[in-house]
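Replying to the earlier thread about multi-chain prediction with a worked example.

Input:
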Amino acid sequence: MVTKESPVRPVLAARRWWSPARRDRTFRGTTALFAGLLLLLAAAIAWSLAHGSHAAVVKFGWRFLTSREWDPVADDYGALPFIWGTLATSLLALAIAAPLGLGAAVFLAELAPPWLSAPVSLAIELLAAIPSIVYGLWGVFVLLPRLRPVQAWLIEHASGVPLFSGAPIGTGLLAGALVLAIMILPILTSLSRDVLNAVPKSLREAAYAVGATHWETLRGPVLDYGRAGLVAAALLALGRALGETMAVTMVIGNTPTISVSLFQPAYTMSSVLANEFSEATGKVHTAALFEIAFLLFGLTIAVNACARALLWKLGAGGGAAVRD
Amino acid sequence: MHSDAPRIQRRLRHRRLVNACMLCGAGACALLTVVPLVSVLYYVWSKGHSGINAAFFTHLPKPVGEPGGGMANAIVGSLLMVGAAALMGLPFGLLGGIYLSEYGHSKLAATVRFAADVLNGVPSIVAGVFVYALVVVPMGGFSGLAGALALSVIIVPLVMRTTEEMLRLVPRSQRDAALAVGATEGRTVLGAVVPAARAGLVTGALLAVARIAGETAPLLFTSLGNRFWNIHPAHPTPALPLQIFAYATSPYDDWHVQAWAGALVLVTITLGFNIAARIATRGRFHLT
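Result:
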């Protein structure tokens, strides 16, 4: 029963099994697997945060969102001061940075000659890459000492205004907002510049043709055309600000109080995670921090989804230039 | 008609004045934007460079009060964790990105694209919380492995999206040419499309690595930090950003100097990677 098998045949058989079509399917399947794993990752993040916060959700329910208590000794937790701190610093930062970023974008896209606008744009984009911790260091040792005399003056001369009450210690809502504003300026400027650059030339030329000044052209057709893109840029920057951790933690004062004063120390959601997570003792404390992480996760997703939806609706319009 | 002329003249003067004011305002905004950023760089250099010496790169941190000491352990710890995160995250992101760009018309691809965008917007500290639940709690302690995993969670969606964008820049004809000479789909992608986009892919990878090299928040409760040497993946591991944070928030002046020196090293690394990435592409791609 000994038949001499051709040495070529098993090779051919193997070839057939490992055929081009099968190879293509394997390749495609492998790449699809990794793409699909990203969905698994996203789901796992959401699930682990929800699972981790279970004990706090059971114990506090909706009260967690409205309570001002943050008392690890009594094991009583509420997230309101942190939600307030996060929203107040981020919105204030956006209010400071948005006009500046838009103005700078106008300068770069419309006014500056190429020899000036190219290196300045590059510098601004590079500055977006500087780590958060470095901005925090700068905030602590450069910004805070310069903020104190300003605070002292304002507290002395405008003490009646609730916005300016408190002690001139430097740390607080305003310091956090200022550092955040500086940190989101690069992304805001470069996204806004891209939006302005994407406005068709014919729109400007039409405005110039009927005698509009440069400013009137900008304020009219150019801003009209780019409005949705600029709003999306602001939302993306806001998303960054909401989740920013280190720099804010270092200058905000880390006290869970709610006050309208710009000089009172405050606390943000990401800061409380940074400060307390590794030292949290007790099941409920950890769960409360998990719930804060979950809220932060949801908040940033909502803001980013709004920005994405806006860009998506714009399609190939002015927003096509905005990516991050 | 005759009587209108001065009014129109006045109006025109007014409009020109507004125009000039507003444009000057834009210039002022640009200046105000650049000033704080330049200030950050200036102070990092001026306060940091005095702390940079051989000991900074070769010695362990000294206890409070003792002069000298360095951040050698933190630098090595950062290198190990960032390297491990890149090894885990880059291939993952690269393969996923290939799927998005080459087979990207499916429902799955649209969902993955959306998920990647969403994850890119999620604060990095959330990645730390996730890995804490996933790795630190089951392993019973903080570890360098957990730190590297947290960093790779950040890198994956980032690389996936840049890979997709870079591959999409390769013209359709390049793929058609490879297919026409009989290459399989897989061979076309790996042999024609990926090499054509190599510069862009390298840029994306460099930028992603630069990004995680500076991350502090996701390491706070995964790798925790360590004042001594550690290269064991299951033990708390020091990292440069963590050490800067610890020193900056301490009340000691000589530690502040070390923090600034650390910041100078960190800024040099991240800006160096960014500039290298820009040189690699030489203005061929626009990355934000």
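Chain B touches chain A through 93 residues (CB under 8 Å).

Feel free to reuse this layout for your own posts.
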